[in-house]
Write a structure and sequence with these properties.
296 residues, alpha/beta, oxidoreductase, NmrA-like domain-containing protein, NmrA-like, oxidoreductase activity
């Protein structure tokens, strides 16, 4: 948004952080962003942070606490503060309720369900306009620390075998289709709602560039890197976590295989969102080309 030719002139930006002395906060100030301190875990700090704001973009971090109840409490607290402050446009970073769309088959995707519960609550607050953006699997997490590829020789680059093959670090089913997003593109998905918040009131924006099968993704990695990237077996990739959700994401999952990341209507919903946008998001291939070299 800071570099957007339209919104950078129209809006004044305020960033909220728990520690305004951090280097990242200073970099934002250098770009003309107002930086204020508040803590979602301390509701009494939130009123001043959102006071006078036209719009609020609220996003929580489930992984910090790994506790759905904490995320729900934080999300509701920000929404309450924004409503009390008279905020006109409230944007919530949401996700679908997996327990519901899987008819109770999947009940441990807590970081989806918790955001969906906050979304349901926000809808009861009667903001003049509220919009829900649902981000896909981050391209930035393609090489994730959730699990680690084996390092078979101390002289080899992490994840590479001695025959030059590179093991992808998720043991996914080759045919599983997963949506991806470059997180730097999030503003592109929100642009229509910022231009016409009334039109998009209560809308869900499915923020992904496209669905790719696991095989398509490793083929792209092979093409861009020049390496032979392959999907590993579960035996080849040891998990570094006992978190059941991270285990689910790192292994073949009924979420991807049967239900889909966004549920049964995900691809249709993505098609609608992309049709609303003026600016095209990066493809996975563009992201990989822009963020190499890989496996050096």
């Amino acid at each position: 948004m800071l570099s957007h030719p339209e919104f950078s002139r129209f809006y004044h930006f305020r960033a909220i952080t728990r520690d305004a002395s951090k280097p990242t906060a200073e970099k934002l100030r250098e770009k003309g962003v107002e930086v204020v301190e508040a803590d979602m875990g301390k509701p009494e700090t939130l009123s001043a942070a959102v006071s006078g704001a036209y719009g609020v973009f609220s996003v929580t971090n489930y992984w910090e606490s790994r506790d759905a109840a904490v995320e729900i409490t934080q999300g509701k607290a920000v929404a309450d503060a924004a409503r009390a402050a008279g905020v006109s446009l409230f944007i919530w970073s949401s996700l679908p309720n997996v327990t519901k769309f899987s008819n109770g088959e999947l009940t441990t995707v807590h970081h989806f369900d918790s955001k969906a519960e906050v979304e349901d609550y926000i809808r009861t607050l009667s903001f003049p306009s509220c919009v829900f953006i649902m981000t896909a699997f981050f391209m930035q997490n393609i090489w994730s620390p959730i699990i680690a590829p084996p390092k078979v020789d101390a002289n080899l680059t992490y994840g590479q075998l001695d025959n030059g093959t590179v093991l992808f670090n998720f043991a996914w089913n080759p045919l599983d289709r997963i949506p991806y997003i470059d997180i730097t593109d999030i503003g592109k998905y929100l642009a229509p709602a910022l231009r016409d918040p009334v039109k998009y009131n209560n809308s869900r924006l499915t923020a992904a560039t496209a669905y790719y099968s696991a095989k398509e993704l490793v083929d792209l990695l092979s093409e861009v890197s020049g390496k032979n990237v392959v999907l590993p077996t579960e035996a080849e990739i040891p998990l570094l976590t006992d978190d059941p959700m991270k285990q689910m994401l790192a292994r073949p999952s009924v979420l991807f295989t049967k239900w889909g990341y966004y549920g049964p209507t995900g691809e249709q919903d993505l098609e609608w969102t992309l049709a609303q946008m003026d600016e095209r998001p990066k493809t996975s291939k563009q992201f990989l080309e822009d963020n190499g070299p890989w496996f050096q």
